[in-house]
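Fold it.
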Amino acid sequence: MPSPATSQTGPSPSLGGRAGAGQPLLRLIDVHKRFGRNEVLRGITFDVQAGEVVAILGPSGSGKSTLLRCINHLERIQGGQILFEGRLVGYRADGNGLKEEREAAIARMRREMGMVFQRFNLFPHLTALGNVMEAPVQVLKQPKAQARETAVAMLTRVGLAAKLDAYPGQLSGGQQQRVAIARALAMNPKLMMFDEATSALDPELVGEVLAVMRDLAAEGMTMLVVTHEMGFAREAAHRVIFMDEGLVQEEGSPAEFFGAPKTERARTFLARVTGA
């Protein structure tokens, strides 16, 4: 597999390093991702500042979910660079090029990036409390008493204080997704990423998950949110990024994007999803 350093338009490996004052929390520079001959990401560049909520919108197949998976190195990129707090994600400088980082180092960085997927992926044999405690105990090696205290606090934060001892099969889809959010929060991440977190839910359950996400946004959590929920993007995001065909077609404030989209592709997309 060619490393990102082989990208002809990619930046020098020397850009990797600790972020200084005013540096973005997350930086993507000319990121490319291919599956065989299909180039899913065709040169993605943008920054995310600490405390910022960025909504990523676009039609199905535009590369949004793949982008999130590249950010925490669940997918390997073929060109460009991703930097988190100034550190290369998934790679390290090696001479004049880049070499894939060791799995232990990748895992350490992933701990700082919470990820909430479409599917909840809870352990069915563990209670809500047990699901949230699992990673702090097994990954962070926290004492069980400390992990339990954190888990109770996180489940309370997402409105599930009364469901600590409930198993996933006893919870609604919305409640299960809120457990998944609490599980991610229990790792004390610096960035939370949501990949269509409400798309697998019945319509009447969507609101309770969006309410938790709005609360996190209001508390100053840095969030990168792939969503088809236009209301959330309009009300909770600081910035909207519109993707199509593996490219950032447009970005701006919600007022700019929803009020006066600059591109015909964005106007067509909004007309279809809003019915306007």
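Residues 1-19 have pLDDT under 50 and may be disordered.
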